[in-house]
Write a structure and sequence with these properties.
With about 325 residues, the protein is α/β, with parallel strands linked by helices. It contains eleven helices and ten strands. Bound molecules: ligand PBG.
Length: about 325
């Protein structure tokens, strides 16, 4: 020890001192709760690979949304699970489709008190489970999909969503949706672009949550986990096309990407702590192998430290409560 007088531990000595010098704080208002609603349910239904998360009925969704807002969450991201699907995902466009109906319900219930967001993607609504429509050869047709996204965006805006989250990773999706919204007079509706979305195995439990019909993978449109530079390019394009906020997804395995994105742009940066990240912690905690609450808060702090200003997490409502306690 050349310099015994330099003692970083001085600043870790008491809880008060540690609180004083903490560099990162997670606020309930940073947290966005993703919620699932399924057409035709009368009671909420548990999702086995996401213990504690449910597919809501329309009624239980309204109630749970109000509870989450009372806990102080900053926003809600809605996903719809339709009763029937077709080749083009028309249930996402139909004003009476489950997601659009749910947006109206939640906006009516808590619309003035929170930010209501809708996932803008076809995968829940297509019979093949892909995020877009298919060409004759079975590949995902980028530009035909953009036409559907425009219509879906208009339906979601009409339903009252404050923020749309284009998440299908089609080229040009942000620009096309922005133009369609503006042309129809929805200039106040914001876009949270899933700018960086990896073809991740961490989405596994989500596929159960939305009863995905997907066979195969999404590697022709979602990104290769090996690539960082490509992620920065996606972000630059989305900001240029008019994204109001950008997202990196998943979160914890991609904190390096998140940190670079946060350095690069001047719009708010979100991170999606996805279903597999949630499931890993819940499974370990259920075995008594991890201290569940401490791990939840540690992951959120780490995502925030890396530059995620907003965090989508299935723990949003509970974490908001935990954060008020400390
Ligand atoms: C696509 C979408 C997915 C997720 C959010 N939006 C699934 C996918 O791309 O396969 C995954 C979220 C999660 O795993 O929690 N609509």
């Amino acid at each position: 020890m050349g310099f015994p007088e330099v003692r970083p531990r001085r600043l870790r000595r008491t809880p008060a001192m540690r609180r004083l010098v903490a560099e990162t704080h997670v606020q309930p208002s940073n947290l966005i709760l993703p919620m699932f609603v399924k057409e035709g349910l009368t009671e909420p239904r548990p999702i086995s690979s996401l213990p504690g998360v449910v597919q809501h009925s329309r009624e239980s969704l309204r109630k749970a949304a109000a509870e989450a807002v009372a806990e102080g969450v900053g926003g809600i991201m809605l996903f719809g699970v339709p009763a029937t699907r077709d080749e083009t995902g028309s249930g996402g466009i139909d004003p009476e489709g489950i997601l659009n109906v749910a947006v109206r319900d939640v906006v009516a219930e808590v619309g003035d008190a929170t930010v209501v967001m809708a996932d803008l993607c076809l995968d829940e609504f297509t019979s093949h489970g892909h995020c877009g429509v298919l060409a004759a050869d079975g590949s995902v047709d980028n530009d035909a999909t953009l036409r559907q996204y425009e219509l879906m965006a208009l339906a979601q805006a009409e339903a009252g969503a404050h923020v749309l989250g284009p998440s299908g990773m089609m080229d040009g999706q942000v620009g096309v949706v922005r133009r369609a919204l503006d042309k129809a007079g929805f200039t106040d509706v914001s876009l949270l672009a899933y700018a960086v979305k990896y073809a991740s195995a961490f989405f596994g439990p989500f596929r159960e949550a939305v009863e995905s019909a997907l066979v195969g993978d999404r590697k022709s449109y979602q990104q290769d986990p090996a690539n960082l530079r490509e992620a920065l390019r996606e972000v630059a394009l989305d900001v240029e096309e008019g994204a109001d906020m950008v997202m990196v997804k998943p979160a914890l395995p991609y904190l390096d990407v998140l940190a670079r994105v946060a350095e690069m742009v001047d719009v708010p940066v979100a991170a999606y702590q996805v279903s597999g990240e949630y499931a890993m912690v819940e499974a370990a905690a259920a075995n008594g192998w991890l201290d569940r609450e401490k791990v939840i808060l540690e992951t959120l702090t780490s995502i925030r430290r890396a530059g995620g200003q907003l965090i989508l997490t299935y723990w949003a409502a509970e974490a908001a409560r935990l954060l008020r306690r400390i």
